[in-house]
Task: inverse folding
């Protein structure tokens, strides 16, 4: 498909909408594709005007926030306009008494969280890179961290959403109250839609009281089996931990600040395959008074190897949230997989990982939500004999093939050369034709993130 | 209804599974709300395959179909428009699987809400969403309405507890969303479908989360001399950092009404009571009970009582859960509202409701989910008196206007259905509604399923869909997997 617009006239038309100061060129690559132009609208109406223009001319638009998650997904067919939401960055309304907040989509998450913190409140999301990741971007990618175990993720706290459709309409779903069934639940539809349905411009959250005190219990086991038995014990106990992570033997290597590395391709753990790494960990984080935390210590007993509190605890959980970043900072060609599993599929998935990796010259490590089946799996290339693009693809296929039915596993990061050889999204139990019908209903010309998402 | 259709329905579902005589159909012309309309036929499906065949038949003949569970809905969602086929899922009432290790249950849509909790209690689990009608309402209906309940304050509503669905589309196609995993790759169509009020597909199988029964539960009863103090307590508790499992309020009139009915142990001279439930680990519950009692007293509670044992606790809840029935004893008719307001606006809104009550000379009882700001004012009237009926509608409208003026919602858990369709334009713009219609049409392009519900018939609906329900629309082109048309 070709466009009739010359670049110069497109620049002019976009500048008319957003002003000269808010269009620019970029060298930022999304899976090897450089957007032709970056546009930063200053209001939802301007977003609408940009989208209408793009829709009329058949230009492909990639919505963007803090650029922290843009590499997730397929290789874009092309990007004519990178639509940045970063100028939409104010708190529209916050009344601590109502425990709700209304924020423009381009605000970095951490900035909103700081405001909430002043009132001992929070949106319980501990995804990575929150200083840069925007609220709209986190919603669009359904990003989450260890807190997903108890609080769920964006879909569970988002009570209202404002977005702009490709025909330029500014539309809202939900509202500012915590319970609301008026109209269809557009919040659920946009959460995790990877910018493929509409451009999110505003989000309303329900917020929660922030726990006043927490403590972390690190428990070690000699095998995966023992760790899973301990998980079963927690499920049967009266304990209700806020987070429950499972950590594979090689993962702790990446749970601290990255060492200075000069060449990300060269770094590898020392003697990667000879390390007697057998220790699996289950890490619990509990909230409550001394009395409650004392009960945890009693119930967990001798399983606890160490306890963390205060700044050390915060630091530890930040490392867990940033496990993926830590891996990729040392192995640029690392492979990262996110899983969606039934609770009892966690064990088989971790075994599958340990089995699949070595055959393809990859070293496995895993961190994830033991209670809900959301694992972050990392596969690091062997520095002596790194895998080929096909080996990445084959490793993912082999791993997926070993997962119990009903599981899904998406590849969040791999070398771009490997992407043409397999489907980064993989199969899903949800009807894909219906997803496509929804996409057609709302973006009939397929101008949003073409080629990136499952639809 | 055309007899050939009745005959075909009998062929699909069996002789004893189709009703078409007027005296039988009368029983299916209403739900627990205010609207009424007699269907053309009622068919009881027993399998997914039958649902699929019924939908295919209806789709070919362009007859609207209205799915129905137990008929406990409060917004007319299960009431026929015109000569529709009411598709009852009440006979699809088997619990297919209780998967304790995965903390899931797989159920058919006709399973009664409370029966699932009863069936899983022996494993130490329950199904958390608990609408007041939980002894009768079905999980399929709960999914369609995204039902709430008192205990959804801490644990969330139906959508937070559904992980998988099997759905029959209007053309008879059977599709699946999600499964036992908490979520899956791709669009969250499970979440989007929940609360679609039977306008997108017929749910034939549901995978739900099971929640661990708490170690300890305690229920407090805060007793107040003024409604305002009780309302202020709600705000203060929410701000104190404690999230109760439930935080319910009954005003003085409701208290007396309930007491006359079940003797729940509420003091009859109270102006309002708060029913506060705390659950979790024993130590945490004890501390929270202390903290909450202190907040109540600071907010001028006359007294805070604590249920001594399970029997007393159940009795306190019996009062709350039978409140609507108690009203039925004293008033020939009542009109239940379901507005939602930001929590800090509870005191002001209750004062406003009091003013509206006086203005129209109608008793308005209040029993509601205070912790969520989800109000249920019950407007009492005598349906035989046209003046009172009219006034009750006017009063309802004013209450809604008040909720909306605070950025609230017209419905927190009862659904839009037929009853609140006219109010949708007060909450949403035409553009908002148009997008919703486009999305609905992706599932239900010819409005065969539950036509003229949820979204009012605005001009764009006719443009997109054509006159309802026998719509002539361009078929949505099937696109081969992979590439989208450009």
Result:
């Amino acid at each position: 498909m070709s466009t009739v617009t010359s670049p110069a006239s497109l620049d002019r038309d976009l500048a008319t909408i957003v002003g000269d100061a808010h269009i620019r060129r970029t060298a930022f690559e999304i899976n090897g594709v450089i957007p032709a132009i970056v546009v930063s609208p200053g209001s939802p109406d301007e977003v609408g005007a940009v989208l209408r223009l793009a829709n009329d001319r058949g230009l492909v638009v990639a919505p963007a926030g803090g650029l922290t998650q843009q590499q997730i997904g397929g290789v874009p067919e092309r990007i004519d306009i990178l639509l940045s939401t970063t100028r939409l960055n104010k708190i529209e309304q916050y009344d601590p008494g109502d425990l709700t907040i209304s924020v423009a989509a381009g605000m970095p998450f951490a900035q909103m969280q700081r405001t909430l913190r002043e009132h001992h409140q929070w949106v319980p999301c501990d995804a990575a890179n929150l200083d840069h990741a925007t609220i709209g971007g986190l919603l669009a990618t359904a990003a989450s961290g260890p807190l997903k175990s108890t609080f769920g993720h964006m879909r569970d706290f988002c009570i209202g959403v404002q977005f702009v459709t490709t025909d330029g309409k500014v539309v809202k779903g939900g509202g500012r109250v915590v319970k609301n069934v008026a109209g269809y639940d557009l919040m659920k539809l946009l959460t995790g839609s990877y910018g493929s349905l509409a451009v999110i411009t505003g989000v309303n959250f329900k917020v929660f009281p922030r726990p006043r005190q927490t403590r972390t219990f690190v428990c070690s086991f000699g095998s995966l089996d023992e760790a899973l038995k301990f998980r079963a014990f927690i499920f049967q106990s009266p304990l209700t931990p806020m987070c429950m992570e499972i950590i594979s033997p090689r993962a702790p290597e990446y749970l601290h600040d990255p060492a200075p590395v000069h060449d990300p391709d060269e770094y590898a753990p020392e003697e990667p395959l000879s390390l007697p790494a057998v220790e699996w960990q289950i890490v619990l984080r509990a909230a409550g008074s001394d009395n409650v935390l004392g009960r945890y210590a009693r119930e967990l007993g001798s399983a606890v190897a160490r306890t963390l509190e205060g700044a050390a605890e915060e630091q530890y959980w930040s490392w867990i949230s940033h496990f993926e970043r830590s891996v990729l900072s040392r192995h640029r060609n690392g492979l990262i997989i996110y899983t969606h599993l039934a609770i009892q599929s966690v064990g088989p998935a971790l075994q599958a990982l340990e089995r699949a990796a070595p055959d393809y010259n990859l070293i496995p490590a895993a961190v994830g939500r033991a209670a809900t089946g959301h694992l972050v799996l990392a596969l690091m290339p062997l520095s002596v004999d790194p895998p080929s693009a096909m080996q990445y693809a084959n490793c993912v296929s082999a791993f997926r093939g070993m997962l119990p039915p009903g599981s899904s596993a998406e590849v969040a990061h791999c070398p771009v050369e490997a992407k043409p050889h397999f489907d980064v999204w993989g199969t899903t139990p949800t009807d894909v034709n219906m997803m496509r019908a929804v996409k057609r209903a709302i973006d009939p010309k397929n101008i949003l993130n073409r080629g990136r998402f499952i639809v | 209804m055309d007899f050939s259709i009745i005959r075909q329905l009998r062929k699909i579902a069996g002789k004893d599974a189709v009703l078409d005589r007027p005296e039988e159909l009368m029983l299916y012309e209403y739900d627990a709300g205010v609207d009424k309309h007699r269907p053309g036929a009622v068919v009881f499906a027993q399998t997914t395959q039958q649902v699929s065949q019924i939908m295919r038949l209806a789709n070919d003949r362009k007859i609207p179909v209205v799915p129905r569970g137990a008929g406990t809905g409060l917004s007319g969602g299960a009431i026929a428009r015109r000569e529709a086929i009411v598709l009852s899922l009440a006979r699809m009432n088997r619990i297919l699987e209780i998967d304790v290790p995965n903390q899931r249950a797989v159920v058919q849509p006709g399973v009664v809400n409370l029966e699932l909790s009863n069936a899983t209690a022996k494993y130490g689990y329950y199904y958390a969403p608990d609408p007041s009608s939980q002894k009768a309402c079905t999980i399929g209906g709960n999914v369609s309405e995204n039902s709430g309940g008192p205990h959804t304050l801490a644990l969330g509503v139906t959508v937070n507890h559904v992980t998988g669905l099997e759905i029959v589309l209007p053309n008879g196609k059977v599709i699946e969303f999600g499964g036992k995993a908490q979520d899956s790759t791709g669009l969250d169509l499970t979440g989007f479908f929940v609360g679609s009020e039977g306008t997108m597909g017929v749910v034939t199988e549901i995978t739900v989360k099971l929640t661990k029964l708490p170690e300890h539960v305690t229920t407090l009863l805060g007793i107040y001399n003024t409604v305002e103090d009780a309302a202020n307590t709600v705000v203060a508790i929410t701000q104190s950092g404690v999230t109760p499992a439930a935080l319910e309020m009954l005003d003085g009139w409701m208290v007396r009404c309930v007491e006359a009915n079940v003797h729940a142990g509420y003091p009859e001279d109270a102006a309002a009571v708060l029913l506060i439930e705390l659950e979790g680990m024993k130590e945490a519950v004890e501390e929270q009970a202390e903290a909450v009692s202190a907040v109540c007293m600071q907010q001028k509670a006359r007294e805070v009582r604590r249920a001594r044992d399970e029997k007393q606790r159940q009795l306190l809840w019996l009062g709350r859960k039978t409140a609507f029935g108690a009203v039925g004893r004293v008033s020939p008719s009542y009109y239940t509202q379901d507005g939602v307001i930001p929590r800090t606006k509870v005191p002001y809104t209750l004062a406003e409701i009091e003013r509206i009550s006086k203005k129209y000379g109608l008793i308005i009882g209040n029993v509601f989910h205070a912790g969520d700001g989800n109000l249920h004012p019950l407007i009492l009237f005598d349906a035989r008196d046209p003046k009172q009926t009219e006034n009750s509608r006017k009063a309802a409208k004013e209450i809604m206007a008040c909720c909306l003026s605070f950025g609230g919602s017209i419905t927190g858990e009862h659904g839009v259905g037929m009853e609140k369709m006219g109010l949708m334009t007060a909450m949403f713009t035409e553009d908002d509604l148009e997008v919703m219609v486009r999305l609905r049409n992706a599932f239900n392009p010819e409005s065969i399923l539950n036509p003229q519900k949820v979204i009012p018939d605005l001009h764009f609906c006719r443009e997109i869909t054509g006159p309802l329900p026998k719509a002539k629309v361009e078929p949505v082109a099937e696109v081969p997997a992979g590439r989208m048309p450009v």
Remarks:
- Chain B touches chain A through 96 residues (CB under 8 Å).
- The radius of gyration of chain B is 23 Å.
- Residues 340 and 453 of chain B are 20 Å apart (CA to CA).
- The longest helix of chain B spans residues 386-405.
